[in-house]
């Protein structure tokens, strides 16, 4: 089994930029991933990535991939079951297809996956009215009524996108809206977006497909049922880090704790992007963190003599 200088787990903006920077330092690099683009692929339009006033997530991912592939970076398409730090200080990634990859240093950039609501009817109607990607599935709900659960950037952006297709869009916010001000302003200008502030989803109802969503007012405990054809869950994400060594420090949300260089508490292990405890989850921040982690990994390899 070949040993590379840097093993990168994940190929979103953080992972792709980490691979690029590591390769430009003349390090050998392998990227293990199940897709290229990560959560960018769930974003219809990105307007705050410097140099691109407006670009789709798919297009930006394609451009990043093409840039990285100008360098001798190898991509391995698989999931990681476990990551082990060996006695010699190197890392072995055990893959879900039975394979193994080894690296002298490792950069974790695997992002997050969608948080579920864990309410009755959610699992039963997933794919039949319950969706976790407004960009992917929104066009199927043209001229239909939908509900969105969440209060962050992805939820508000989903409301804006779906308002172009749907006569009525309900946005359920548990406590407060945490999205960027410019997105909130745009949403408030849309008459067909109805915000339910201080409400939680209680049950998805239907008959073969979604027909309603039961919601509860947190203040008085009263419930009501919204007549909807679709429910889009945009309630945040859970870090993809189940494979990490048990001694890697994470916060209460399961996010990997790093310093500004992308270093974790484990020597030779770095992390970047949405899988970490960085405060702001943005494409451009993830890309910058990927670069910082790669440069730190390069310095680590020089110091360690691996």
UniProtKB/TrEMBL annotation:
Pfam families named in the record: Pyr_redox_2 (PF07992)
Name the record gives this protein: Thioredoxin-disulfide reductase
InterPro entries: FAD/NAD-bd_sf, FAD/NAD-binding_dom, Ferredoxin-NADP_redctase_2, Pyr_nucl-diS_OxRdtase_2_AS
Transcription regulation among keywords: no
Cross-referenced PANTHER family: THIOREDOXIN REDUCTASE 1-RELATED-RELATED
Keywords for this protein: Disulfide bond, FAD, Flavoprotein, Oxidoreductase, Redox-active center
UniProt domain FAD/NAD(P)-binding: residue ranges: 5-290
Keyword Mitochondrion attributed: no
GO molecular function ontology, one term from the record: oxidoreductase activity, acting on a sulfur group of donors, NAD(P) as acceptor
Matching Gene3D superfamilies: FAD/NAD(P)-binding domain
PROSITE patterns given in the database record: PYRIDINE_REDOX_2 (PS00573)
């Amino acid at each position: 089994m070949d040993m590379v200088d840097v093993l990168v787990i994940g190929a979103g903006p953080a992972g792709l930029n980490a691979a690029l920077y590591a390769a430009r330092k003349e390090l050998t690099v392998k990227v293990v991933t199940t897709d290229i683009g990560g959560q960018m692929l769930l974003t219809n339009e990105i307007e705050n990535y410097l140099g691109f006033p407006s670009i789709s997530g798919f297009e930006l991912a394609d451009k990043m991939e093409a840039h990285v592939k100008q360098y001798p970076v190898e991509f391995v398409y698989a999931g990681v079951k476990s990551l082990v730090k060996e006695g010699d200080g190197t890392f072995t990634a055990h893959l879900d297809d039975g394979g193994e990859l080894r690296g002298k240093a490792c950069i974790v950039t695997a992002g997050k996956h969608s948080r579920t609501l864990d309410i009755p009817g959610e699992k039963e109607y997933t794919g039949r009215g319950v969706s976790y990607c407004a960009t992917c599935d929104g066009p199927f709900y043209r001229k239909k009524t939908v509900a969105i659960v969440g209060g962050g950037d992805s939820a508000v952006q989903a409301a804006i996108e779906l308002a172009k297709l749907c006569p009525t869009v309900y946005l359920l916010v548990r406590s407060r809206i945490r999205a960027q001000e410019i997105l909130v302003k745009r949403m408030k200008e849309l008459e067909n977006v109805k915000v339910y502030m201080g409400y939680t989803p209680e049950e998805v109802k239907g008959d073969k497909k979604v027909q309603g969503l039961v919601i509860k007012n947190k203040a008085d405990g009263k419930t009501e049922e919204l007549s909807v054809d679709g429910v889009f869950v945009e309630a945040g994400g859970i870090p993809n880090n189940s494979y990490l060594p048990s001694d890697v420090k994470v916060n209460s949300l399961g996010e990997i704790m790093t310093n500004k260089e992308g270093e974790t508490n484990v020597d030779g292990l770095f992390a970047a992007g949405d899988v970490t405890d960085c405060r702001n989850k943005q494409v451009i921040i993830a890309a910058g963190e990927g670069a910082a982690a790669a440069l730190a990994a390069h310095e680590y390899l020089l110091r360690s003599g691996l």
